[in-house]
Amino acid sequence: MSIDSLTALIRTIPNFPKPGIQFRDVTTLLADGPGFGELVERLVAVARPLDPDLIVGIEARGFILGAALAAALGKGFVPVRKAGKLPGKTVGIDYVLEYGSDRLELHEGQVPAGARVVLVDDLIATGGTALAAAQLLREQGASVLMALFAVDLPDLGGKALLEEDGVATQALIAFDGD
To answer: Which pathway (predicted)?
Structure first.
């Protein structure tokens, strides 16, 4: 299956969550068995040569892609969650959004110092959440080998933001314009 075929499986929802936004909905790709399988195979092809110790997924669709990638690689999976969602002792980072702030957390000690990780999410837009997740992982002593995404919205600058911070970044599909 080609990248164009995978791209065609991603639904665009106009004016969501607010007017002027073209929301790229990967759930339609995830619901297509052959498409989802091909997406995971392509993620594996990028991540395998890096030989990570762990795959770290960003809430929420990063859990889906990250867990599938971890299973295919035979690696462990660690979720990075929004504040208050994990039951054990956590470490976290506060970060600024366009209109406010948020917090990401992971279980304390789940990513050991020296761990080599690949950070995964479904989509990179402005990059704020992924950058915060990478910083949180670095604070734990992890080496972030790459941030890996199914979709990039390059006009929003997220990939460039991560790369400026020294995080190698790759996305399989790009939607120009928004």
So the answer is: Purine metabolism; AMP biosynthesis via salvage pathway; AMP from adenine: step 1/1
81 is catalytic: no
From the candidates 24, 38, 61, 105, give the one annotated as an active-site residue: 61
Amino acid occupying residue 111: V
Establish whether 116 is a catalytic residue.
no
- Tens of pLDDT, residue by residue over 73-88, are 999 999 999 999 999 9
- Model confidence band, residue 97 (pLDDT cutoffs 50, 70, 90): confident
Residue ranges and CATH numbers for the domains of the chain are: 50-174 (3.40.50.2020)
Of 6, 77, 10, the residue nearest 40 (C-alpha) = 6
Q: Give the integer Cα–Cα distance in Å for 54 and 40.
A: 16
Total-model pTM = 0.95
